[in-house]
Design a protein that fits this description.
Elements: E1 13-16, E2 23-28, H1 36-50, E3 59-63, H2 68-73, H3 95-108, E4 112-119, E5 126-128, H4 144-153, E6 158-161, H5 163-177, H6 183-187, H7 197-203, E7 207-215, H8 221-235, E8 254-263, E9 270-271, E10 279-281, E11 286-289, E12 295-297, E13 302-305, E14 316-323
């Protein structure tokens, strides 16, 4: 167990162009063991410092290690998941609350966010897209076209939408079962719990994307992240187009919509096999088995997303997605 004192600061780097322009925030290591973005940010900062990359306009801010406690411990979380229930705390109760007290105003001070992540299972990089323009209560939004255009240029072949609305389904089911009395139990039933970096950014009038750059240890992931930063800067007009080869996919990216989340009920719930994100499932196919023998079947054909065989009871076990009718333009 870590015996050093907890980190007491966030390291923030900012480059201010001499001409007005967009305010872009790039973050990494929101989950401490997702380090590809850390390397990518360091590489881009080195390019800027060396003069091989010029910021023409706007403000570019980097936070290479958003959760320094989790990063020091080389695990996903410090004391809790920073990318859930993100909001300025009235009275901080844990390390992540203290980070949020600094991170939330920083997000609100910018217009665009690129949040760099990686994932546990095997698979290719993909982007998480926000909602379509709407005036609803869950996640009102008015910048869907900007997010779609950014997603289209990042160099990934798959884009996923529908996070917060699907997570809300899980919240409703957990609330119906009642809390266990712990703070963790209360948090996973909090209507705000699905809000992470991009969701908070949108709530403050901005917009942005989460980019899952690949598996945690994939040696290609840092380069995916670095190119995504450069392509974002070009897309926003902050650096010259010749600074990076823009991605021109041979075919449009596949767009999927999350529609269901299934929680693990018991520690002995088991998957039918070792699933990877975006593995295909057919209607009625057995995905897993509950501890008491009940089958867990696919309600429709589509893809399994974020399967987590380490999920604790009462937490998300896996998501399901199907083809979306959304176009990235």
């Amino acid at each position: 167990m870590n015996h050093l004192p907890q980190p007491r600061h966030l390291r923030i780097h900012q480059f201010a162009g001499l001409q007005p322009g967009p305010k872009l925030l790039v973050t990494a290591a929101v989950h401490g063991n997702e380090v590809c973005g850390v390397a990518a940010i360091q590489a881009v900062m080195a390019q800027l410092d060396a003069g091989t990359l010029a910021l023409l306009r706007g403000t570019l801010t980097f936070v290479p290690i958003v959760n320094p406690l989790a990063h020091r411990l080389q695990r996903r979380e410090g004391e809790r998941n920073l990318n859930r229930n993100l909001r300025p705390p009235v009275v901080p109760q844990d390390f992540e609350d203290r980070i949020a007290r600094q991170l939330c105003p920083l997000l609100a001070a910018h217009e665009v966010l690129l949040d760099l992540h990686s994932f546990q299972g095997h698979g290719q990089a993909f982007a998480m897209l926000g909602p379509r323009d709407n005036q609803g209560e869950l996640e009102p939004f008015a910048h869907a076209d900007k997010e779609s255009a950014l997603a289209a240029c990042l160099g990934v072949n798959r884009v996923v939408e529908g996070w917060l609305s699907t997570y809300e389904l899980g919240l409703q089911r957990r609330a119906a079962k009642g809390a266990d009395g712990s703070r963790a139990g209360a948090l996973v039933q909090d209507p705000h719990y699905g809000v992470g970096t991009t969701e908070y950014m949108r709530s403050q009038g901005g917009w942005g994307l989460t980019l899952e750059c690949g598996q945690h240890q994939d040696p290609k992931a840092p380069e995916v992240a670095r190119l995504a930063i450069l392509r974002s800067l070009v897309q926003l007009g902050m650096v010259a187009p010749e600074a990076v080869e823009l991605h021109q996919p041979a075919t449009p990216a596949e767009v999927l919509q999350l529609y269901e989340v299934i929680d693990r009920e018991h520690a002995d719930d088991q998957f039918e096999r070792e699933w990877a994100s975006f593995d295909a499932v057919e209607l009625g196919q057995r995905i897993g088995t509950r501890f008491d023998g009940r089958p867990v079947l696919a309600p429709s054909s589509g893809r399994i997303v974020f399967p987590n065989n380490k999920a604790l009871p009462g937490q998300e076990w896996f998501y399901l997605a199907r083809a979306s009718d959304r176009s990235l333009g």
